[in-house]
């Protein structure tokens, strides 16, 4: 099992913690991680875009002029795409962009992402993370103590003081263990986990 340093919010090392190889030491599967990221981004798309085709725009029921003898090109409707006010060719319509990914693939992608952060030395484990008040400055100081800037911070359970203190800091996102995703782990430079979060992730995915 890999061992990583355990820090406090002051940035001082207070010990070491072993990471379960079944979660933090798997063979990294880049294809599955890519699929999970694509599925995540696709799920974020609203799919509500819409435009009118020639069958949706009003008017244009009558042929604008007779077929032959006018000197004009033949036309069937003033609402054809080439006319001003006409319909859109291949107009986008509301649709579902979801990409299917099964549970085992999703779990493997998450484990691969966690392992990649361990391999890169981009994981920081805190013994605990508590703030006595909602204060952005205090949260920013903790990040500075840990020498991280663009970070994904994962807590074992909801903590309003910590989450709201981080809300206005650019490049920082907080989450709890039950809402983490492969996309967020890979998006941010550093992964900051509390010891409780490590234990909970291990219980669920090991």
Protein model, in words:
The protein has 206 residues and is an alpha/beta fold. It has 2 domains: 2-45 and 99-205, Ribosomal protein L4/L1 (Ribosomal Protein L4, Chain: A), CATH 3.40.1370.10; 47-96, no CATH class. It has helices at residues 21-24, 30-44, 103-119, 136-145, 160-166, 182-187, 195-205; strands spanning 2-7, 13-19, 123-126, 151-155, 172-176, 190-194.
Ordered list of secondary-structure elements with their pairings:
Blueprint: E1 2-7, E2 13-19, H1 21-24, H2 30-44, H3 103-119, E3 123-126, H4 136-145, E4 151-155, H5 160-166, E5 172-176, H6 182-187, E6 190-194, H7 195-205
CATH domain class of the largest domain: Alpha Beta
Number of domains: 2
CATH architecture of the largest domain: 3-Layer(aba) Sandwich
Total number of β-strand segments? Answer: 6
Q: Report the span from N to C terminus.
A: 13 Å
Low-confidence stretches: none
In terms of DSSP E residues, the strand content is: 15-25%
Radius of gyration: 27 Å
CATH topology of the largest domain: Ribosomal Protein L4, Chain: A
H and E order: EEHHHEHEHEHEH
* Global mean pLDDT: 93
Strand order of the largest sheet: 2-1-3-6-4-5
Strand pairing plus helix content: what structural class? Answer: alpha/beta
- Name given to the CATH homologous superfamily of the largest domain: Ribosomal protein L4/L1
